[in-house]
Amino acid sequence: MKITSLQDLKKIQKSIQETAARQAAERAAQLERERRLAAQKNLFMLAVGAVNPLPDQRKAELRKAQPEPVATQLQRDEQAVLVEAISDGFDASNLLDTDDALSYRRQGIGADVTRRLRKGEWSIQRQIDLHGLRSDAARDALSGFIRDAQKHGIRCVRVVHGKGLSSPGKTPVLKGKVRNWLVQKNEVLAFVQARPIDGGAGALVVLLKPG
To answer: How does strand 156-160 pair with strand 126-129?
Structure first.
């Protein structure tokens, strides 16, 4: 701009002053914005406190495998077999009722129980035939049979031991042993000689405890 008079000089000075004032105002406004942002940041930091980044371990949280269930009932059953082993040396003759059939009832069981067994009032639910087995095999078979029957809620069973007609001297070997074995079984409440229709002298009808 060409200055030709004092008036032109005054116009130039005024323009310079206005520009300087505008720039000063813009700087002041910028400083105010920066101050407010800094104040907001400080307020946030004061609110949340110090923050530390979590370490990145690159590991997944996996559930531990559950242990296999233990067959505790099976273990108890197997232990019971060992504890309740029956002996050939046990003599039950003094525990048997002194009748022709040599019946048996556990202490606390009334005489009416054996009387009802003789009459066939208890329905035979299962049976085992030991006839022809050697003594050891017959003992183990009887023990397992009684235990399994009682476990399944069977109350009345028949045990066939034979009359011993094929034994040396016609002596019934298993007949007496079966009685001795049954007396030793905790599951057995009573037994009587079977009725003729159920095997007579060659079998016993046995009453078991509830399962």
So the answer is: parallel
Whether the pTM exceeds 0.70: the reply is no
Question: Count H helices, E strands: the chain?
Answer: 5, 5
| Closest by CA position to 114, among listed 211, 210, 204 | 204
User: 42 and 95 share a domain?
Assistant: no
What range defines the domain where residue 19 resides?
1-50
73 part of a folded domain = no
Residues 107 and 40 occupy one common structural domain: no
CATH number at 175 reads: 3.30.1370.110
- Alpha carbon separation from 40 to 33, 35, 47, 51, 143 (Å, rounded): 11, 9, 11, 17, 87
Distance (Å, rounded) from C-alpha 6 to C-alpha 174? 151
Q: Residue 105 and residue 66: Cα distance in Å, rounded?
A: 49
Task: Return the closest-CA partner of residue 137 out of 161, 171, 165.
Answer: 161
Residue 203 sits in the same domain as residue 100: yes
What digits encode the pLDDT tens for the residues 62-92?
666 666 665 666 556 555 554 455 655 555 5
How many domains in the chain? 2
* Same-domain check for residues 105 and 171: yes
Phi, psi (degrees; rounded to nearest 5) at 162: 85, 165
* pLDDT at residue 9, as a whole number: 67
